[in-house]
Write a structure and sequence with these properties.
Chain B: This is 4Fe-4S dicluster domain-containing protein. The complex is a heterodimer. By secondary structure, chain A is α/β, with parallel strands linked by helices. Chain A is 28% helix and 25% strand. Chain A is built from 18 helices and 34 strands. Chain B has ten helices and six strands; from the N terminus they run αββαββαβαβαααααα. In chain B, strands 1, 2, 3, 4, 5 and 6 form a six-stranded mixed beta sheet that branches. The chains are: A alpha/beta, B alpha/beta. At the A-B interface, helix 16 and helix 18 of A face loops of B.
Chain lengths: 665, 305
Amino acid sequence: MSRIGVFVCHCGENISRTVDVERVAGEAAQLPGVAYSCDYKYMCSDPGQNLLKKALAEHNLDGVLVAACSPRMHEKTFRKAAQSAGLNPYLCDMGNIREHCSWVHEDREAATAKASDIVKLMVERVKRGKALAPITVPVTKRALVIGGGIAGIQAALDIADAGKEVILVEREPSIGGHMAQLSETFPTLDCSQCIMTPKMVDVANHPNITLYTYAEIEKVDGYIGNFQVTIRRKARSVVEDKCTGCGVCTSKCPKKKIPNEFDQNLGMRSAIYVPFPQAVPNTPVIDRENCTMFQSGKCGVCAKVCGPQAIDYEQQDTLVVEAVGAVVVATGFKLYSIDRKPEESPIKGYGEFGYGLIPDVIDGLTFERLASASGPTGGKILRPSDGKEPRQVVFIQCVGSRAREKGISYCSKICCMYTAKHTMLYRHKVHDGQAYVFYMDARTPGKGYDEFWRRAVEVEDAVYIRGMVSRLYQRDGKIVVMGSDTLVGVQVEIEADLVVLATAVQAQDGADLLAQKLGISYDKYNFYSEAHAKLKPVECATAGIYLAGACQGPKDIPDTVSQASAAAAKVITLFSKDQLERDPVVAKVNEKYCVGCLQCKKVCPYGAVEEKEIRDRQGNLVKVVANVNAGVCGGCGTCQATCPSKSVELDGYTDEQIMAMIEAL
Amino acid sequence: MTTINQNCYDSVTEAIRREAAKLLQEQTVAAVVGYVAGRRPGTASPAVAKSAEDAEKLVFSPACVNNLALFLSKAKKGIVPKGKTAIVAKGCDLRALAGLIGESQLNREDLVVIGVACAGVFSAAGERSLPLSDANIAAKCRECTIHTPEGVDVVAGTLPQLPDFDPVEAKELARLEAMTPQERWAFWKEHFSRCIRCMACRQICPFCYCEQCLCDRNRPQAVESSPRPAGNLAWHIVRAMHLAGRCAGCAECERSCPMDIPLNLLNRRMAQELKEQYQYEAGTTPQEKGPLNQYREDDDQSFIK
């Protein structure tokens, strides 16, 4: 006969308000196998825990049920208390009479009866519980960083500087991300490339960093401490080991009129190209869709001129598998764009801004390229349509952002600051030019931010008009901006030469697909979700995966770098241990009855099931059965539900326990 | 009444004998699973031919009703000697083989499949002294879609012109479908109430290869084992659910049922469900994953309320 102790918690008044806890404890005492029961105001408090410990010793209990809150809240607390009193912690369970009962019911009588039922069935489960020992798993002390923008670069450098190996994967041919595209950065107006490119070079030269550019994550298997990541290295058509980066191929390539994505399609590049001069690695890539050799089979100029013979037209995508212990996701953002396929755009109703139709209506990132010394205009602010210097520039903020009715309710956070910066950059380059800004609110929290914005208004003479723009249209080579000044209460009309839209910051394309591969959650905007908004801002709910930068939500560079370093710190903390302890709630196969149909293997979301051959002493194959890798098993129980012969069971949730619980009711 | 010419079966028999003898003589296979004529006229029974002499006795006739894939499954281990095996397979047997391969129970490399051009077999109650005709053909054969085998190593025989049979089973399914849920419930309740739990349906099913059936477990007991209404219902639901998306449609369960429970109707209804919900049909190509073993983004979730 079991000797189970039942401890019923009042949770202050949270439970006792609707549940007669004394009656629940009294009824529990009558259950077969219950040797002791009591109720207490706060079981999780120090005296409450001592009560449990004392009762364990005095009544020689062999199982404990704490009827209180959700096990997610205090299971660890009570298991620890039980363990300190000499009980196997897995013989201590919780019955949830708060979230599942008192909080959701009003009828005291019925709620008390339900609480008693919960206790009754949980007692049956505790009775059939098994003493389990925690599983220890080794930690692979290598990290994967996905995304080579400033977030990924910072995280990779921090982890690598701590002496741990890092695999950095970047989708584009070069690392650098959006920050490499920027001209100057707020609030100090220091040159973005001047602070970015040294870090990029550091990444390339760091002995602990393996860099895969032009590569994407194909598959992620495993779990904290032991991930297996399959990386697809897209065919560059250039052998990286041979290429010296001399640049002859790009200069000799006959196909030169391809819009350069790095310059927001303003400049041109060749079919074999390096995205920008400071690219890391400085290895070109052939854009096969535009390359004459790939399209018609005739050309081959780059191969002919390449001294080290690095061009390989036959190159195929290759898959690399890397074992890592932790993953930092730093995939960044994209700017909301309605230019190409407005009908497919998630944000409707900005047709009135003529973006994509009027060539001189551009987005913020395009303005950055115009202002950048390395940009298509060499740093001169020139209109895309006719190359003339604009005399009046109108900036429109909150295009897409903070417009719930149009699909995005969040603030993109960086636009107020970068628009202020744009007005200054413009003023510094076109001294007699006039900048106008249509804004909803100027949001400038941050060190030196408000001062920066006031400088744009007060020193650099940007005219800020509080109100939105209703329509843009072309007239006599100018763009007429019709808007309202809501502070003065008048309609305004400005003849602009150039209009810059501060379009919303959105999650990167394919962010949801990557999240599905990684098994992490994301919000309705495809931004990745942190485990806790305040206390776990860089961790994912999936153990061993961390977030850095704008993939989690709009962020400026200082925030991104801070978060990247924080994520790196979390990874380094994880790597400071040689072994991780895991909950032993894992599936076990009954090899006697398993017929090896391997349905479990097919349904296992963790890839924890593998085939196992059972052989006799002569080495003859007796049969093939399923085998669960306890280190990989996530304890979800899908295999248990799937197994047609019920030959696999989850420890702590065995069929015997579940059936006994049902029968107790 | 439309009668099927018996000659086509003779040509299949000849081809099977020739192929089996060759395979056994050349020791390509250790055994050939096929049929031999039964003692009484109009009958046949499964047999394992292990020599060229045995091969001479193999036949194919409308009496070859059994699904031979059963003898390769784990439930019948030891009947067929170890090593590479040849098997005579009708269309429905082929689907069972494909299913067993997909479920890691068989290796295609260990098999030589002699697919037969099968015009049909006798129904359980059909008169066997007469040639196969509209009157005595099995219900499943009336609607068979794989008279000519696919994806096999050898095709035995050629198919004669087949008449269009009245699809009685499909009509019965449609009749059930048209019932109200209460009427349908009464229909199945009546049938299940007659079940004596002999488990013939399980023993004959090539897909019931578990070493210990869930329904035989007693700690904890999931399905009551004595022939009483609750347990009968539970067993038949478990059987139907476990076969959903797997059933080869050989209807051996229904043929072997001593109480004439129309089990294949249930099998077909489940197959229809899988087809409608997931565009999935058990076919002659082994599948890595059935639709019930995978989660897809576009799965219908309307049932979650």
